[in-house]
Amino acid sequence: MPKYFDIHSHLNFGDYDKDWDEVIGRMRETGTYTIVVGTDYESSKRAVELAERYPEIYACIGIHPVDSPLPTLPLIRGGQGWGELVKHPKVVAIGECGMDFFHQDKERDFERQKKLFLEQIDFALAHDKPIMIHARDAYPEILEILETEFPLGNSVSKLRGNVHFFAGDLVTAKRFLKLGFTLSFTGVITFARNYDEVIRSVPLESIMVETDAPYVAPVPYRGKRNEPSYVVEVAKKLAEIRGEDPERVRAALVSNALSMIM
């Protein structure tokens, strides 16, 4: 049973090649589990390989809206190896998928990103998996798609998932919650106060914590390479912001993560 659960990391990136054993050692010392998230086929395959090798690791497979050079997700229902990857028992989600208009021009790239997002939603539904949403400068666009095509209460749709690295306001948060999604927060909450209102207002059962390692390390590691064991600091800060017992919050966060992967 994990003591902490980082629901979004990229241990499949090369940033950890030189000290892999030490990183895993720190995860074990802190009792931290993590979901390693793919951004394309190769990184998704690597995530599955790590999940197979380490009991503390689970995998999320998919294509990032802009980091992958692929214009679409070809034959995702069974082609190019995706159909085999998704069968692995430790693949717990599809993504990270979504939309990103911070890096790309919305007018030029909207239709490609929308198609890629919908293909991965279809894949997730076909295999009864939650989705891991990436959204940057794209909350209105993503919510429009979800609210129009996958409204809560639609008996045909069992779409569920988590909004990774949530950075929206309370109104946006409530719209995602109404659709049955959870929200996860990163180490940014340890040094920025923009998230406090949402963290205090959202039900604890709808919150998870993540590192997005190797990015955005929390205080006191800010400026360094991030890693899953540092999620301990995110969990502590989240409890502090909510003004709640840290142990109760820690246990709830783990329970929330386990409910996503089971």
UniProtKB/TrEMBL annotation:
SUPFAM superfamilies: Metallo-dependent hydrolases (SSF51556)
Domain of life per record: Bacteria
Gene3D superfamilies listed in its UniProt record: Metal-dependent hydrolases (3.20.20.140)
Example GO molecular function: metal ion binding
Assigned keywords, A-Z: Hydrolase, Metal-binding
Pfam families assigned: TatD_DNase
Residues that, per the record, bind a divalent metal cation 2: 134, 164
Residues in the signal sequence: none
Binding site for a divalent metal cation 1: 8, 10, 96, 212
CDD domains: TatD_DNAse
Protein name in the entry: Hydrolase TatD
Species in which this protein is naturally found: Candidatus Zambryskibacteria bacterium RIFCSPHIGHO2_01_FULL_46_25
